[in-house]
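Both lines are quoted verbatim for reference:

——
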Amino acid sequence: MNRQTKWLIGLVTALVVVNVVLVAILWLKHDNNTQLPRRDAKNYLVKNLSLNKEQEHSFDSLRKDHFERMRNYQEAMRHLKDDFFNRLSQPNSKPDSIGKQIGELQTKIDLETFGHFSKLRSILNEDQQKKFDNIIQDVLHTMAPRGGPPMDGDRQSPPPPGGPPH
């Protein structure tokens, strides 16, 4: 093998390694961005809605009350789902009644989330409400665990800093 061939093989190998590293970094960075804490979602909303100090204080109060209710719902949901899946070991068990309770509780969770953001919207001025209306769906989709409304304080993430999420 001549010197030029060895050099080309080395260059191609180096480029492959760099590409693999870059893809890994982008993939890991993407995963980390989807798991940001809830307080970042709050900061995103405060910044993008340009909340004044009074509005921010009201929002903090709304969030505190909302999180307390959600914590209670999460606890109840955890117990219901444990009961639901514990029935797998009971051959003739019918989980219909617990399934119905889970559905009813999920409705309460969704209504609580809706009410929380309705209250937030009500403290906004007209311009802020327009901004809110433009970003809320993206915020909710980003904050929600797969397949449901926001429930877990550490599973929410805000849209990226440059604008709403995709």
Observations:
- The chain has two domains: 1-33, 38-166.
- Confidence is low (pLDDT under 50) at residues 31-37, 146-162.
